[in-house]
Amino acid sequence: MKKCILFAPLVSHATTGRISALVNAGFELSVVDISTRVIDFSLDIYPYNKISKVYNLNIKTYGRYYSDNPSYISRFIDILQSLNFLKENKSLLNDINNVLLEIKPDYIFTFYGPMGIHFSRLIYKLKINYKLYFICNLIPSTIISGNYFTKKLKKYFVNEFVDYRNWANKLDGIFCSSTQMVEFFKKKFGICNNRLFIFQDFHPTSFGNSDLFESKNTLNSSLIFLGAPERWGGQMDNINNQIIEIANNNINICISKNIIIEDNVNISKYSFFTNEDVFNGELSKFANKYKASLITYNIERRSERFISTLPTRFFSSLSAGLPLAVKSGLFDAVEQFVILHEIGFVYNDIQDLYIQLQDSKKMLAYRNNILSKQNQFTAEFQAIEINKLFNI
């Protein structure tokens, strides 16, 4: 059996799907946890119980850069390290090297976004002859704002851009979420086609449940929003104004009770679901009774980040078997996927959202399309292609 190591944050739901895809592809998988937060769930549940060994780096102990709020100085030091003007953290390099020497993997995967490319850089600098693949998921994580000149300046001095520019071409392969992400890597960093692969970050089958579609004839008329309330307060995640506008236009919407928002007769709230609840399909079972899932962020214009990204709220909606309602003109990859598979609609404004939600025939057709393709929208299905790609 071929061995691989995945460097990834175990606290992320997106990581769960990557674990499931790799173990079901036939890899003997070890995981190096690069979370900055402590996990609050058991590793005895699927797919974590399929991992051969878990290493916790306790990443925060390696310096301020790995804290929840890194200082500008620590970010600047990291840029200088990426440019080889300063040496990397010797202790961290040694600890990574010790794990690699113990496991002796055939392949190394890093996941996701800036932290994934950051650890790809560290692993490459060890000069050990292992095949190294980056599962991107998100690029860039930074929304570049400002005028033309400040945008150009930021792109050279924000950590992730320095890492991508210096190290993406040194990887054996990059897994992208969409055709838009592939084009981004080709255009921005000159990556060749033969090192770019499209694998969406689907959740495991366990995130769904066997009776997802039994309630399709007795659907709740409301939308549901499955965005992460623990990040509420961050500008792009806070869609309170959109929720209020939706509710004020006589559309019922259900949101997490952890979202603080003014009372409205058309806004209802669902209780908190633990990680175990999500992993066992309880969130999907609850959400499936709603008419559609709202996919949006608090952004007003297209940005590089959202053009190519398929966010976790999108995959959570697929696991729940929900048609998707996507705000138009902002999320190219999401729009393309929804239209291609006919599993939802793109709306231009709130009036358009209201009208499309009332088309019961189309809404049922979207739901049935998801049902017919449900198996394809899972990490386990991707394992077949991964198995072929790596000849496991």
Question: Gist?
Answer:
The protein has 392 residues and is of the alpha/beta class. It is built from 16 helices and 13 strands.
Walk me through what this model shows.
The structure is a single chain. By secondary structure, this protein is of the alpha/beta class. It has helices at residues 13-24, 72-82, 90-103, 113-125, 148-157, 159-167, 179-189, 240-248, 275-279, 282-287, 304-308, 312-319, 332-341, 350-357, 360-373, 379-389, and strands at residues 3-8, 28-33, 53-56, 107-111, 131-135, 173-176, 196-198, 223-224, 253-256, 267-270, 292-295, 324-327, 344-347. It has a seven-stranded parallel sheet, with helices on both faces. A six-stranded parallel sheet has the order 10-9-8-11-12-13, with helices on both faces. Helix 13 (332-341) links the parallel strand 12 and strand 13. Helix 1 crosses helix 16 and helix 4 crosses helix 6 (159-167).
Order of helices and strands: EHEEHHEHEHHEHEEHEEHHEHHEHEHHH
- In which range does the helix fraction lie? 25-40%
Helical stretch tally: 16
How would you characterize the largest beta sheet?
7 strands, parallel
Outline, from the CA principal axes? Answer: globular
Per DSSP E runs of 2 or more residues, the count of β-strands stands at 13
Q: Briefly note the structural class of the backbone.
A: alpha/beta
Strand content: 5-15%
